[in-house]
Design a protein that fits this description.
It contains four helices and four strands. With 140 residues, the protein is an alpha+beta fold.
Length: 140
């Protein structure tokens, strides 16, 4: 997932970077590479704040022009962003998502999806024990 950012040369040197898909956010860098790194950090922060506040995340636009650069989110951040956008579009409540994914509601979409607890799952462990003990018909 890539978002466009607008790179404007600064009078003092370097670049001022803004984000046309978001209503807020600005950063800067002395070189284009520095400005790209700062833009990625600011973009991740803005997305995290939108998720934390339960706000709608805009889909990336496709602006044209030499002043625009596309900033690619890291894979995990992109996956979290897509998941949040799908959740937001579904109209589902956090509690329902938690029930469907066997997660405590407190952790559902709190901006820390990577830290969601996982419930241990042992396929057919109770059935295997019952079969071995002879509690199920047809098994000795």
């Amino acid at each position: 997932m890539e978002y466009p950012v607008l790179f404007e040369p600064s009078k003092e040197g370097g670049f001022v970077v803004t984000f046309p898909d978001f209503d807020w956010g600005v950063t800067q860098g002395e070189t284009e590479q520095d400005a790209r790194e700062m833009a990625l950090d600011a973009l991740c922060t803005m997305i995290r704040e939108h998720v934390r506040n339960g706000e709608h995340l805009p889909r990336p636009s496709k602006p044209r022009g030499r002043k625009y650069r596309m900033i690619r989110l890291p894979a995990l951040a992109a996956a979290k962003t897509e998941l949040y956008m799908a959740f937001d579009a579904s109209g589902m409540r956090k509690a329902e998502m938690a029930r469907r994914t066997v997660v405590c509601e407190r952790h559902a979409l709190d901006g820390g999806l990577a830290t969601l607890p996982r419930r241990p799952y042992r396929a057919n462990s109770n059935r295997a024990t019952a079969e071995q003990s002879g509690l199920l018909p047809g098994h000795a």
